[in-house]
Amino acid sequence: MRVLYDLVIVGGGAAGLTAALYASRSGLDCIVLDPSSPEGSSIALTDAVENYTGFSDIAGFDLIQHFYSHAKSFGANFVRQSLVGIRKNYDGFILECSDSEVKTKSVILCMGATHKKLGIDGENKFEGRGVSYCAVCDGYFFKDKTVAVIGGGNTAVTEATYLSHICKRVFLIHRGDALKADRVLVQKLEKSGNVKILYNTNVVKIDGDEKVKSVTLDNEKILKTDGVFVAVGLEPRTECVKGFVKTDDNGYVIADETCQTSVSGIFVAGDI
């Protein structure tokens, strides 16, 4: 690797690839540090993107491939490693990576966020055996079966709508008394004839043997289901920089109006 880069962009999702495009066009000597870009980005796991200017309806995987190709066309370079930690040195920063160290004058953190867990009994036990956080990834395994989607925002409603075309029955379980999703998404969901919404309801336990068989609700009712899709929000992938830059109580990086963090020369972009 080079002795000293102008810029290292950590994360190759939508924010990281956009940063790489602008940096490469500006002639900066930079790399994108990500073990799985672009396939590992959250946008790649989205069935359909309808609110990106220029595309009325495009698969998330196709959109992120456009981002990737665009950045590559201007010379963006990619290093397939993960960030472990950062430390300062006399001329910038040293990034401790999974297989090496990288020196750079500046950094843009674009690691994004991952799916938040419920933290209930059975969730970890049955992850990969009926518990999922991605309908696009795992929905087909539940073809003609019954599933439960937990959440009430855009992601949960989108997941439930997607699964309604694959599964025999979909229960959308929301702890509130009204969905928080955009109206256009709710309207699409309402057109699905096999989705039942359970309001003011929490899942307290996931049960089964080798695979998920049911969930227990807070009214002690047991709901039989073959799968559970959790869509209750996101949490930032900031473990590798905690203690180096300031974060809030939820782990999100604190930045000023220029997107600079508490450390001069370290910037942030995206859902982080």
Can you describe this structure?
- The chain has five helices and 17 strands.
- The chain folds into two domains: 5-114 and 234-268, FAD/NAD(P)-binding domain, CATH 3.50.50; 117-230, FAD/NAD(P)-binding domain (3-Layer(bba) Sandwich), CATH 3.50.50.60.
- The mean pLDDT is 95.
- It has helices at 14-25, 60-73, 135-138, 154-164, 183-190; strands spanning 5-10, 30-33, 77-79, 83-89, 92-97, 101-109, 113-115, 131-132, 146-150, 169-173, 195-198, 203-208, 212-217, 222-224, 227-230, 234-236, 266-268.
- The longest helix has 14 residues, at 60-73.
- The strands form four sheets. Strands 1, 2, 3, 4, 5, 6 and 17 form a seven-stranded mixed sheet that branches. A five-stranded parallel sheet has the order 8-15-9-10-11, with helices on one face.
- It is of the alpha/beta class and 272 residues long.
Radius of gyration: 21 Å
Could you name the CATH topology of the largest domain?
Answer: FAD/NAD(P)-binding domain
Low-confidence stretches: none
Give the structural class.
alpha/beta
Our count of helices gives 5
Order of helices and strands: EHEHEEEEEEHEHEHEEEEEEE
Strand tally: 17
Number of domains: 2
SSE topology:
Blueprint: E1 5-10, H1 14-25, E2 30-33, H2 60-73, E3 77-79, E4 83-89, E5 92-97, E6 101-109, E7 113-115, E8 131-132, H3 135-138, E9 146-150, H4 154-164, E10 169-173, H5 183-190, E11 195-198, E12 203-208, E13 212-217, E14 222-224, E15 227-230, E16 234-236, E17 266-268
Parallel strand pairs: 1-2, 1-6, 2-3, 6-17, 8-15, 9-10, 9-15, 10-11
Antiparallel strand pairs: 4-5, 5-6, 7-16, 12-13, 13-14
